[in-house]
Design a protein that fits this description.
The protein is of the alpha/beta class. Helix content is 39%, strand content 18%. Helix 10 packs across helix 12, helix 11 runs antiparallel to helix 12 and helix 12 packs across helix 14.
């Protein structure tokens, strides 16, 4: 009886058995070294497809040739050897995205590296994406307040703009970007800082400062450090842009800082030369312009029908001895909507941020400023330009007429007012108030070495007596009544 039951059970299991066949296209490693692998046998491999190597190491196909496929490797590859099997995944390179990334430090593959809890996300976005078309975009009209008087007044940045920060090393490029991130606290703007080839010690200091200022809650750091491979440095800015697109698709405004694209171009040059792509000018491959254009074109402001979100890009480029005509700087200048040029000479003279007003420009202009700032900034730029012109001339002139002397005196005070300490971004109402005072001659009688002291006193007086006026100015209102109230506050301080 037991035998019959056993036979019946076996028959049922055999009849219900469904054979499943798993197929996978595999290739063989024929060459390996310096983070690059070449494989044969992957006939149907796609460009930018993820490949699985032994030990779980991932790679991405970049070169699709007649006989071989060239790929870059992410992570450890010393255990891989010639003759090993490589498997296609069928997935184009993508990373996990989600709200849980806010306040975290991740690598370009979306893996947490801040020592905290692991992130789990079911949503994946491809790191390469075609930029939104012209018909889905909207003009840039809403400001991104950096909190820096010189930039908000003369080189305004708008939500959806691409504004390049350019200058020699150690001129305060990263400081401008970090101040901007700190100033977005409570302004409904998510910030993503992408570190490309930066020292880990510098990144640790940035994280500590953002935590101290309470800015980590609205910030994500995507980090490819100096000790990371060229392949991680290469995909880092695209990973940052992908995270930004996730939030933009939800209708949120995002600010992305790419620090810096010079090192990104170096990483791409290294990869391209190892993959034996033909080198061009300065040994960069022929598509190095496209490398940055396809990244920065993803920054835009979408119209209401497409969600109304925006990505504002602040790429950073390092120049050598102030040469803005070099290959990579000119490429990125031609892609972006303006540049903030920081000069070594100004930095060493103590004028910080070391903004060169002559070479800096915002192609969005006053469209990205509130009305009160437009009113005070027009006079400011003109006064500063006249001062710069007269300053060099005055060095050789022993006797100056009163009008010229007055312009030089006022220009010197404007320069003094525009100086600002790092990590001390200023609210827009305070900026408008102090710039109005200096451009309208209220500081002309204040000795130059006492301008900073006067500014501190004035802002304390302004905040103590004019909180409603500050709200009105920050809200974008400006008329004779507001102007008269501001004049009255300045004159009252003079009496005090």
């Amino acid at each position: 009886m037991k035998t019959d039951q056993l036979i019946e059970t076996l028959k049922k299991q055999i009849s219900s058995f469904e054979g499943t066949i798993q197929t996978a296209e595999v290739g063989t490693v024929v060459e390996l070294g310096d983070g690059i692998a070449r494989m044969t046998g992957l006939q149907k491999c796609q460009a930018a497809e993820m490949l699985e190597f032994p030990g779980g190491t991932l790679g991405v196909a970049l070169n699709l040739e007649q006989e071989t496929v060239g790929a870059i490797l992410f992570g450890e590859y010393k255990h891989i050897k010639e003759g090993d099997t490589v498997k296609r995944t069928g997935r184009i390179l993508s990373i996990p995205v989600g709200d849980a990334f806010l306040g975290r430090v991740v690598n370009p593959l979306g893996e947490v590296i801040d020592g905290g809890a692991k992130l789990v996300s079911d949503t994946f976005y491809p790191i390469e994406k075609i930029a939104p078309g012209v018909m889905t975009r909207e003009p840039v009209t809403t400001p991104v307040q950096t909190g820096l008087k010189a930039i908000d007044a003369m080189i305004p940045i708008g939500r959806g703009q691409r504004e390049l920060i350019i200058g020699d090393r150690q001129t305060g490029k990263t400081a401008v970007a970090i101040d901007t991130i700190i100033n977005q606290k409570g302004k409904n703007l998510i910030c993503i800082y992408v570190a490309i080839g930066q020292k880990e010690s510098k990144i640790a200091r940035i994280v500590a400062k953002l935590k101290e200022e309470g800015a980590m809650d609205h910030t994500i750091l995507v980090v490819a450090g100096a000790s990371d491979s060229a392949s991680l440095n290469f995909i880092a800015p695209y990973a940052g842009s992908t995270l930004a697109e996730y939030f933009m698709d939800k209708g949120t405004d995002v600010l992305v800082v790419y620090d810096d694209l010079s090192k990104h171009a170096w990483a791409y040059r290294e990869i391209s030369l190892l993959l034996r792509r033909p080198p061009g000018r300065e040994a960069y491959p022929g598509d190095v312009f496209y490398l940055h254009s396809r990244l920065l074109e993803r920054a835009c402001r979408l119209n209401k029908e497409n969600g109304g979100g925006s990505i504002t890009a602040l790429p950073i480029i390092e120049t050598q001895a102030g040469d803005v005509t070099a290959y990579i700087p000119t490429n990125v200048i031609s892609i972006t909507d303006g540049q903030i040029y920081l000069e070594s000479d100004l930095f060493y003279r103590g004028i910080r941020p070391a903004l060169n007003v002559g070479l800096s420009v915002s192609r969005v202009g006053s469209a990205a400023q509130i009305k009160p700032m437009k009113k005070v900034a027009g006079k400011l730029r003109l006064s500063l330009a006249q001062f710069r012109e007269l300053e060099s001339f005055a060095q050789f002139a022993s006797d100056l007429d009163p009008a010229t002397k007055q312009q030089i005196e006022r220009g010197a005070r404007i320069v003094e007012v525009l100086k600002q300490l790092q990590f001390e971004p200023m609210p827009v109402a305070e900026q408008v108030a102090i710039l109005y005072a200096v451009t309208n001659g209220y500081l002309d009688t204040v000795p130059l070495n006492q301008v900073k002291e006067w500014e501190t006193k004035f802002l304390a007086h302004f905040n103590a007596t004019a909180s409603k006026l500050a709200e009105t100015i920050a809200g974008g209102a400006w008329d004779d009544k507001v102007e008269n109230q501001l004049k009255e506050i300045i004159q009252n301080l003079a009496i005090l």
